[in-house]
Amino acid sequence: SAADAPGSRRVAPAPRLRQPSRVVVRVEDVVVGHAPVGTSSTRRSCRPGYSDRVIPSLTDGRHLRLPGTRNLRDVGGYPAGDGRRTRWRTLLRTDALDVIPTGSREALLDLGVRTVIDLRWPHELTDAPSVFAAGNGVRYRSIPLLDDDPTPLIGLAATYRYMLDERAPQLADVARALLEPGGLPAVIGCAAGKDRTGVTIAL
User: Fold this and answer.
1) What is the helix (H) or strand (E) element at residue 25, kind and residue range?
2) Which of helix, strand or coil describes residue 172?
3) Which pLDDT belongs to residue 137?
């Protein structure tokens, strides 16, 4: 053939790339302080009727796709200096937890969540109360991070700076809630789980 003719150069076939396998994180396989991928733990009993359910996730296990949530994410696995990383399944960020069904609520409890911190305004709590507002097995803390929304007047970047410069007492309340005995694992959220939650989590 032409490919075998004298002077011709045979081209080696391109290597086949291995596709990443899909990871499913079981509710009962929670290992605090380690990435959920590739870890193992002692199997513990889950709540009745929930033992066979799973939480489908992205390949790194960061986005927990629980029904009723749009932006529930684990902040574990980020570099924390000296070669360390933030712990998995210890601190979560989320949008409002006002419409999650019973199964999702129980999934969060099975993940070990002990504290729910709600950064929304009082009127948001009245219009769409969190399913954890009555306790339901966790410590619920309402800590409105802002009195009102200054974004239309000063812009988003300035609002972020405002939260850091002017809302130190509220941010300190969040830190104290996390540092209480048995305060972790915890989930912090606002309406969209984006601006107020993002600044708090970054701090």
Assistant:
1) strand 24-26
2) helix
3) 84
Q: What are the residues whose beta carbons fall under 8 Å from the beta carbon of 161, sequence distance 6 or more?
A: none
> What's the Cα-to-Cα distance from 117 to each of 46, 47, 145, rounded to whole Å?
24, 23, 11
* Cβ-proximal residues to 182 (8 Å cutoff; 6+ apart), any chain: 114
Q: What is the pTM of this model?
A: 0.70
Model confidence over 6-18: pLDDT tens digits? 454 554 454 443 4
Q: What is the DSSP string of 100-154?
A: --HHHHHHHHHTT--EEEE-S-HHHHHHS--TTTT-TTSEEEE--S-SS--HHHH
Query: Looking at residue 122, what is its pLDDT?
Result: 92
Angle in degrees, 0-180, between the axes of helices 156-166 and 168-179, rounded to the nearest 10:
70
What number of residues does the chain have? 203
At 187, the amino acid letter reads V
Neighbours of 180 (CB within 10 A): 13
Quote the distance between the C-alpha of residue 159 and its chain's center: 23
